[in-house]
Amino acid sequence: MRYSLSLALGPMALLLLLLLALALILTEQRASIAHAAPSVNARHVLTRGGVEHKEAAVAAAAAQTHRADAGATPAIREVDLEGLKKLLQRDGATSGKNARPLLVNFWATWCGPCRDEFPDLVRINADYSGRNLDFITVSLDDPSEIKTTVPAFLREMRAPMPSYLLNVIDPETVISAVDPSWGGGLPATFLYDANGRLVFKHTGRIKAEELRAAIDKVTSGK
Amino acid sequence: MKKRYAFAISLSLTLALSLIAATRAGASGDNVSAVTIGSTVADFKLTDTSGKEQKLSSLKGRNGTVLIFISTQCPVVRDYIERIGKLAADYRERGVNVIGINSNATETIDDMKAHASANNLAFPVLKDKGNKIADLLGAERTPEVFFLDASNKLVYHGRIDNHRNITLVNANDLRDAIDATLAGKPVVKAEASAFGCTIKKAS
């Protein structure tokens, strides 16, 4: 009797410890994602004249209603730090119960891996734009290129996602606002759920399947 | 009987702890361990552009060392390369040495040699094969700077200044950190970030 009890207790203890380990891991992962939520702290904003941050809410609305339209390149809007924050927070028309998960890709025409991954991003946009996901791209090119190399590349890629070009003097303010743990390397891709919580991030060329899995998860609400 | 029971429990514990350790490593697989401000960087060896092995301890400055991750192809590094050269020249006499590190798996020692020659680099550039030092320090992009004081303690990490367009620079974070250290003062802003090219690490 005691022998069979001991034999039963061994596997039971193993199972219990395995469950404990799993619970620990899940708790840790949740905590790390929650910690990575975008900062909305007010920061000193350095802008140059003519930046359209007041239009960000309108632009965000356009992002929500936008649908894939291969061949058409949307106008590229210049944004400053405040404008970008509004885009990330989905202020105005896209806030509240109508908010959808948001995918943001930071890129530049001078960045090789950014250019390399763009076809994957265009395909992802085509596959998900009608499926409860907003997708915007933010170029870190020089503002002087807003009417030249940036639209030329987007046209070449047949990229219909709403596109922005960041105009800030101090990039650190932007990096901190997006994700304090982001070192500033490009390309960088961030996925937020409908509540604005950062649920996925990747620096460097994306792994399309990994990103698709994260989008599937966030758009299905699991 | 007791022995058998104790063995089962020990085995269970070992398996569970191994599982925790293995899963944690997997969860942080994309992250690199990083040296934090205030910690000391241990001596390391890398190969220079002539194929000679070099040690941090033999290249370091008597008053401090700037480790800067660079690339031969990154356009941001291209915009900064003159500034890096000037910084190296400005501080050499004051006992601060600049050491370039190339951790890009896609760039060869020949590429580095040509790049150093084309840009008249007057400081050593080392090849970080397998991005071991980039991972050790937590470097992710180019250009990215780690400034060590005379005792190899990390006192500043991040960008050179705030803008790749030199006419828009209004924060010289690296120079401020070096100047403060040389004056025996604490570095006010020990970390600052900027956009750059991602280091193409060995897979």
Task: From the structure above, extract its key features.
heterodimer; A: 222 residues; alpha/beta; 7 helices; globular; B: 203 residues; eight-stranded mixed beta sheet; 10 strands
Outline of the structure:
Chain A has 222 residues and is an alpha/beta fold. Chain A contains 7 helices and 7 strands; from the N terminus they run H-H-E-H-E-H-E-H-E-H-E-E-E-H.
Description:
The complex is a heterodimer of chains A (222) and B (203). Chain A is built from 7 helices and 7 strands. With 222 residues, chain A is of the alpha/beta class. By secondary structure, chain B is of the alpha/beta class. Helices cover 36% and strands 20% of the residues of chain B. Chain B has 6 helices and 10 strands, in the order αββαβαβαβαβββαββ. Chain B starts with a helix and ends in a 5-residue tail after the last strand. The A-B interface holds A 2-3, 6-7, 9-11, 13-14, 17-18, 20-21, 24-25, 28-29, 106, 108, 110-113, 140, 142, 169-172, 175-176, 182-187, 202-205 and B 1, 4-5, 8-9, 11-13, 15-17, 19-20, 23-24, 27, 30, 73, 75-76, 140-141, 144, 159, 162-163, 165, 168, 170-171, 192-200. β5 (185-186) of chain A pairs parallel with β10 (196-198) of chain B, so a sheet runs across the interface.
Q: Helical percent range of chain B?
A: 25-40%
Please state how the strands of the largest beta sheet of chain B are arranged side by side. Answer: 2-1-5-4-3-7-8-9
Biggest sheet architecture of chain B = 8 strands, mixed
Shape designation of chain A: globular
User: Mind telling me the C-alpha Rg of chain A?
Assistant: 21 Å
Q: What is the tally of beta strands of chain B?
A: 10
Order of helices and strands of chain A: HHEHEHEHEHEEEH
Q: What is the CA-based Rg of chain B, rounded?
A: 21 Å
Roughly how much helix do the residues of chain A carry, as a percent range?
Answer: 40-55%
Average pLDDT value of chain B? 88
